[in-house]
């Protein structure tokens, strides 16, 4: 299906559908199955800065030899990282689709060195998943954004492979943040990160996990910001994540300005066959509308290319729907 080929982060993808960072991309057999199903690329399951550091702390806490702390820390970090590097190398040897590594982090620290060895292992690109939950009322939003940008700057100084930054939807001004990211020569942004969902069990009166899978209804907000980012900053690639559940959603994302989409929830729920269904839908839609390539589709309905950009800026429900009874 040459018609649905796309370019993302400077990489040639046979399909705009990327299998996102999850357990679905945690082993070589799963990556090979995803390639066979027709994905354009995979984002490997993230290596977690926090997880490794917690593992180090746990081992150190039970050590009878405090003087061995440095050795223990180095051993745990190296062991966790080496497993990840082995996955990158084996995936690159056995698969032909782009392999995008992923680091999940929340602060600027020694983990930045992970990025360098990930590049050396052969990853085609790196997705940086920065998670900072603003729980301190004394810390202004500007400080949180500064922390994000410091992390990005350090990683960019460390690697030369394409970098994408996966963002949460909670920024005061996402466009300003994406602009600053673009100024740091980042190739792409992923909109949006879906954080660990929280719920409350009213019978047990305990805090529990919410629904871990995304829903199609979550796509709307992502389309809004994709259209505005692509309209104002067309030189930075956008991948849509969260809420993509069928081929029509892929087309919507591309029209809004996405070069690719990242999926996981729908694959968990329906299996890898859904990827081929998405690809076929996109190809058929493009044929029916006489598009020869995805470059003609991407951004066609972004905030700059439609007659009334205010359609993406409407946020007040009652103002537009108060007449409906």
Report a brief summary of the structure:
The chain is α/β, with parallel strands linked by helices.
Core attributes:
alpha/beta; flavoprotein; 42% helix; globular; 13 strands; dihydroorotate dehydrogenase activity; eight-stranded parallel barrel; single chain; pyrimidine biosynthesis
Can you walk me through this structure?
By secondary structure, this protein is α/β, with parallel strands linked by helices. It has one domain: TIM Barrel, CATH 3.20.20.70. It has an eight-stranded parallel beta barrel with strand order 3-4-6-7-8-9-12-13, surrounded by eight helices. The radius of gyration is 21 Å and the shape is globular. 40% of the residues are buried. One of its GO terms (cellular component) is cytoplasm. Its cofactor is FMN. This is Dihydroorotate dehydrogenase-like protein.
Write the layout of secondary structure elements.
Elements (H helix, E strand, L loop, with lengths): L5 E3 L2 E3 L3 E3 L8 H10 L3 E3 L3 E2 H13 L7 H26 L4 E7 L6 H10 L3 E6 L10 H18 L4 E5 L6 H10 L4 E4 L6 E4 L4 E4 L9 H14 L4 E5 L5 H10 L3 E4 L1 H6 L2 H16 L28 H5 L4
Parallel strand pairs: 3-4, 3-13, 4-6, 5-6, 6-7, 7-8, 8-9, 9-12, 12-13
Antiparallel strand pairs: 1-2, 10-11
Helix pairs in contact: 2-3, 3-4, 4-5, 7-8, 8-10
N/C terminus separation: 46 Å
Largest sheet: 8 strands, parallel, barrel
Strand order of the largest sheet: 3-4-6-7-8-9-12-13
- As residue ranges, the low-confidence spans are 53-76
Average pLDDT across residues? 86
CATH topology: TIM Barrel
Helix content: 40-55%
**Assigned CATH class:** Alpha Beta
Kindly state the number of beta strands: 13
Protein name: Dihydroorotate dehydrogenase-like protein
GO molecular function, one term: dihydroorotate dehydrogenase activity
Pfam family, one: DHO_dh
Pathway: Pyrimidine metabolism; UMP biosynthesis via de novo pathway
């Amino acid at each position: 299906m040459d018609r649905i080929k796309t370019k993302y982060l400077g990489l040639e993808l046979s399909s705009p559908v990327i299998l996102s960072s999850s357990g679905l991309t945690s082993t070589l057999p799963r990556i090979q199955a995803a390639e066979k199903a027709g994905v354009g690329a995979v984002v490997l399951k993230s290596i977690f800065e926090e997880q490794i550091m917690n593992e180090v702390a746990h081992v150190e806490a039970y050590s009878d030899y405090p003087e061995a702390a440095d050795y223990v820390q180095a051993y745990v970090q190296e062991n966790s990282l080496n497993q990840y590097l082995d996955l990158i190398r084996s995936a690159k040897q056995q698969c032909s689709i782009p392999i995008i590594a992923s680091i999940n982090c929340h602060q600027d620290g020694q983990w930045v060195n992970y990025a360098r060895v990930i590049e050396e292992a052969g990853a085609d690109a790196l997705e940086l998943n920065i998670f900072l939950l603003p729980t301190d009322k004394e810390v202004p939003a500007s400080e949180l954004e500064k922390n994000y940008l410091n992390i990005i700057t350090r990683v960019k100084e460390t690697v030369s492979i394409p970098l994408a930054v996966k963002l949460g939807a909670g920024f005061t001004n996402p466009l300003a943040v994406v602009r600053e990211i673009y100024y740091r020569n980042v190739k792409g942004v992923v909109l949006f990160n879906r954080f660990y969902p929280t719920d409350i069990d009213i019978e047990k009166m305990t805090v529990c996990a919410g629904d871990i899978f995304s829903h199609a209804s979550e796509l709307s907000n992502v389309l809004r910001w994709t259209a505005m980012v692509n309209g104002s900053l067309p030189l930075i690639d956008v991948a849509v994540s969260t809420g993509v559940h069928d081929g029509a959603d892929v087309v919507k994302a591309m029209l809004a300005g996405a070069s690719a989409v990242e999926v996981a929830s729908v694959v968990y729920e329906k299996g890898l066959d859904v990827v081929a269904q998405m690809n076929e839908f996109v190809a058929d839609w493009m044929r029916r509308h006489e598009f020869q390539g995805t470059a003609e589709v991407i951004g066609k309905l972004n905030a700059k290319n439609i007659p009334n950009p205010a359609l993406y800026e409407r946020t007040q429900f009652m103002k537009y729907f108060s007449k409906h009874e």
